C-alpha cells in the first residue's frame, strides 16, 4: 500500500486535524498491544514540554515553536518505528515512503512472530506519522534537530517505554490541531 501524500504544495489545517485525530485513534488502539514499562531505558525520547508553547496561549501567540517541536517528535518516532520494525536491509538514504513499504512487507513476512493486527497497527501509525510530518514540512514547520543519531540497542523494555511515551504524546498533538489552525486557540485570559 503506498503512503498517502497530499498533492498540494501545502496541507490544509483540516488535513492536519484529520491526520492528528487518526494518529491518536491508532495509538489508542495500539495501546492494547503494549505492556506498560516504567523502566527508563538509556535511549533518549523526545517529549513535548511546557516551554514548547503547545498550550492555547502559546499557540495563539506564536504556533511556530510548537509545530516545529511536533515535527521533531514525529521524526523521531517515524525513524524509531522504521528502525525497530523494518528489515535490517533498510538503507539510510532510502525515501521514507519506500522504507514504510519495505517495513510493511517485512512485518507480513514475519507473521509467525507478529500478530497481523499488531502489524497493521504499526503500519497505520507509521503512515500517519509520515503524512503528518510531511504536512508540517510542506507548511514550513520543519524542526531543527532531526539528524539521525546512534542509539543504544533496542530492548524489550525500551520498546515498551518508548511505545508508552508515543501513546502519551498523540493526544497532545491531536489537541493542538483540534481547531484546525493552531493559532485559533483562544488565548488564556487572566482573571
From TrEMBL:
In which family does this protein belong, per the annotation?
Answer: Belongs to the IL-6 superfamily.
Where does it localize?
Secreted
A Pfam family cross-referenced in the UniProt record is: IL23
Q: What processes does the entry annotate via GO biological process terms?
A: defense response to virus; inflammatory response; innate immune response; positive regulation of T cell proliferation; positive regulation of T-helper 17 cell lineage commitment; tissue remodeling
- Species whose genome carries this gene: Pelobates cultripes (Western spadefoot toad)
**What does it do?**
Associates with IL12B to form the pro-inflammatory cytokine IL-23 that plays different roles in innate and adaptive immunity. Released by antigen-presenting cells such as dendritic cells or macrophages, binds to a heterodimeric receptor complex composed of IL12RB1 and IL23R to activate JAK2 and TYK2 which then phosphorylate the receptor to form a docking site leading to the phosphorylation of STAT3 and STAT4. This process leads to activation of several pathways including p38 MAPK or NF-kappa-B and promotes the production of pro-inflammatory cytokines such as interleukin-17A/IL17A.
Give the record's keywords alphabetically.
Answer: Antiviral defense, Cytokine, Disulfide bond, Immunity, Inflammatory response, Innate immunity, Secreted, Signal, Tissue remodeling
What does the subunit section of this Swiss-Prot or TrEMBL entry state?
A: Heterodimer with IL12B; disulfide-linked. The heterodimer is known as interleukin IL-23. Interacts with IL23R; this interaction enables recruitment of IL12RB1.
Give the CC-aspect GO terms: interleukin-23 complex
Molecular function terms, GO-annotated: cytokine activity
Where this protein primarily resides, as one coarse class?
secreted
Q: What is the recorded name of this protein?
A: Interleukin-23 subunit alpha
According to the entry, what is the taxonomic lineage of the organism? Eukaryota, Metazoa, Chordata, Craniata, Vertebrata
Amino acid at each position: 500500500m503506498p503512503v498517502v501524500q497530499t498533492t498540494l504544495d501545502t496541507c490544509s489545517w483540516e488535513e492536519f486535524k484529520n491526520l492528528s485525530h487518526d494518529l491518536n485513534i491508532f495509538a489508542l488502539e495500539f495501546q492494547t498491544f503494549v505492556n506498560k514499562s516504567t523502566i527508563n531505558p538509556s535511549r533518549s525520547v523526545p517529549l513535548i514540554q511546557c516551554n514548547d508553547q503547545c498550550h492555547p496561549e502559546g499557540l495563539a501567540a506564536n504556533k511556530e515553536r510548537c509545530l516545529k517541536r511536533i515535527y521533531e517528535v514525529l521524526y523521531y518516532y517515524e525513524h524509531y518505528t522504521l528502525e525497530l520494525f523494518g528489515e535490517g536491509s533498510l538503507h539510510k538514504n532510502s525515501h521514507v515512503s519506500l522504507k514504510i513499504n519495505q517495513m510493511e512487507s517485512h512485518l507480513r513476512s514475519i507473521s509467525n512472530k507478529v500478530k497481523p493486527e499488531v502489524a497493521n497497527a504499526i503500519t497505520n501509525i507509521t503512515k500517519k506519522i509520515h503524512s503528518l510530518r510531511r504536512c508540517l514540512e510542506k507548511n514550513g514547520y520543519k524542526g531543527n534537530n532531526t539528524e539521525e543519531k546512534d542509539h543504544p540497542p533496542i530492548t524489550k523494555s525500551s520498546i515498551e517505554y518508548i511505545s508508552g511515551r508515543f501513546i502519551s504524546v498523540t493526544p497532545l498533538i491531536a489537541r493542538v490541531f483540534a481547531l484546525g489552525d493552531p493559532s485559533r486557540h483562544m488565548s488564556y485570559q487572566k482573571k
